[in-house]
Amino acid sequence: MTGQKTVPSVFINKTHIGGCDKTVQAHKDGHLQQLLAAESESYDYDLIVIGGGSGGLACSKESASLGKKVMVLDYVVPTPKGTSWGLGGTCVNVGCIPKKLMHQTALLRTALQDARSLGWEFSEQVSHNWETMKTAVNNYIGSLNWGYRVSLRNKNVNYVNAYAEFVEPHKIKATNKRGKETFYTAARFVLATGERPRYLGIPGDKEYCITSDDLFSLPYCPGKTLVVGASYVSLECGGFLAGLGLDVTIMVRSILLRGFDQEMADRAGDYMETHGVKFLRKFVPVKVEELEPGTPGRLKVTAKSTETGEIIEGEYNTVLIAVGRDACTEKIGLDKAGVKVNPKNGKIPVNDEEQTNVPHIYAIGDILEGKWELTPVAIQAGRLLARRLYSGSATKVYHSLFWPLEFTVPNRDNNRSYAKIICHKLDNERVIGFHYLGPNAGEVTQGFGAAMKCGITKEQLDTTIGIHPTCAEIFTTMEVTKSSGGDITQAGC
Fold it and tell me: What does the pLDDT read at residue 439?
């Protein structure tokens, strides 16, 4: 049942602790006492997961499959514009999934242009219907929401659509959309509340602007759009809106994609500009006013230069704010449970087993301090946490990952795409960095990611036979180093 082949094999109240070392460690961190106390104390659930996103769902289903009584609480606080959504979290409802579908929609516009050059003949007047796209995207997401509910039911996980808040270390209050309060207790808790978009704190931002939480179910075409921010969310949204043929301006406070490789970031920005995206650099908005209501209406944005203090004004139909996200930890009563939170960003510090300073409370996903904010990481963390808690597993999450920026559209000019690898010269030229800007970035990077985790070297890449003709084969034929200053221009395939 546990996979443990050594003795002693310690169980407390049907929970597998492990061997001698695990039991001693449980004593040191206070977990052992919690379990022993649970012998004489009855709880409603073995585990309550707060948050029904990718990580929370993975953890709850895995825990239930290991024989535990599990509850998931998930409640989406509507945006200032009133937007809400179903079970599944950010990625499914207002993140990766709808973004990629709308990105694909934008790519079809390029495909139409390519089609003419290959002999397809059709009317020059081709238009896009935003409502048709939005309905198709939302219908697909709705099917995913329903699928998650069915999956939880099949795993015997009790899903409750209510807002959870700690009132005691082992007790929460759940408030549903009608305001009804119900109280539940559990031996353990997992926090998986995720993040929500940050606003600017200027006049008119919440009254007249939208965020990515609103964009993917916006009932009307946004028209001329100002995107505020230089985050990957900003560039992705600005990119596909421009790809749909809209007038898009991105307002950048300082640099694109802070924290990313800046050579790659600048090349991405240059590429976007060649495809019609306008950048307003070194400016920040200070006020947003409504000139005319409508769907869309007209807005006036007042902005200030970060260098000279110059004030400018512009008119747009829609203002999309994409300046970062905040952890949803402030209003869930963590102080009453004794959980420590970084007061500067709301993130929760945890050890390498996702355990907070309170032994029976764990946290996973985007709310963790200093961890990657990625859906596959949250899913893996949730599953592995459940296995460590309830099946004696010792496997921990491998957090040292990289991630591709996947928003560029396929290009027909060899020298608009770009690729590079970073090698550790003193470690047999082991590949420690991988960058790719071009078509099918996610697919290409996934394969090389596995190779990097296995310790692939430059020599091994060089001796790999490339699959031709593909973009990915460039990584098997790289010869020019950065230090040499050599020409990387490609004349053909």
Answer: 81
Angle value at C-alpha 192, between 188 and 193, nearest 5 degrees = 125
Number of Cβ within 10 Å of residue 68's Cβ equals 21
Name residues of the chain where pLDDT drops below 50: 399-412, 492-493
- Residue among 93, 79, 89, 94 nearest 51 (CA): 89
- Determine whether 253 is exposed, middle or buried from the number of CB atoms within 10 Å of its CB (0-12, 13-18, 19+): middle
B/e letters for 391-429, b = 16+ CB within 10 Å, e = fewer, are bbbeeebeeeeeebbbbbbebeeeebbbbbbebeeeeeb
Helices (H) then strands (E): counts for the chain: 14, 21
d(CA 261, CA 280): 21
Q: Helices 54-65 and 130-154, interaxial angle, to 10°?
A: 20
pLDDT single digits (tens) 30-56 = 778 777 776 557 999 999 999 999 999
Query: Is residue 313 within 8 Å of residue 302, measured between CB atoms?
Result: yes
Give the CATH architecture of domain 418-476: 2-Layer Sandwich (3.30)
Domain with CATH 3.30.390.30 in the chain: 418-476
Q: What is the pLDDT of residues 163-198, one digit of tens each?
A: 999 999 999 999 999 999 999 999 999 999 999 999
Q: Which amino acid is at 463?
A: T
Distance (Å, whole) CA 220 – CA 434:
39
Question: What class, spelled out in words, does domain 205-323 have in CATH?
Answer: alpha beta
User: CA-to-CA distance for 258 and 31, rounded, in angstroms?
Assistant: 39
Kindly state the tokens that stand for 118.
């290959």
The fold for domain 43-79+138-196+326-390 equals: FAD/NAD(P)-binding domain (3.50.50)
Domain with CATH 3.50.50.60 in the chain: 43-79+138-196+326-390, 205-323
Q: Which of 16, 128, 424, 468 is catalytic?
A: 468
Given this model, what pLDDT does residue 164 score?
A: 98
| 98 to 23, 210, 406, 442: CA distances (angstroms) | 45, 16, 14, 16
What's this model's pTM, rounded to 2 decimal places?
Answer: 0.82
Bridge partners, 72 (sequence order): 49, 159
Those residues with Cβ within 8 angstroms of residue 282's Cβ, 6 or more apart along the chain or in another chain: 252, 253, 254, 305, 306, 307
31 annotated active-site: no
Spatial CA neighbour of 353 closest among 20, 49, 25, 109: 25
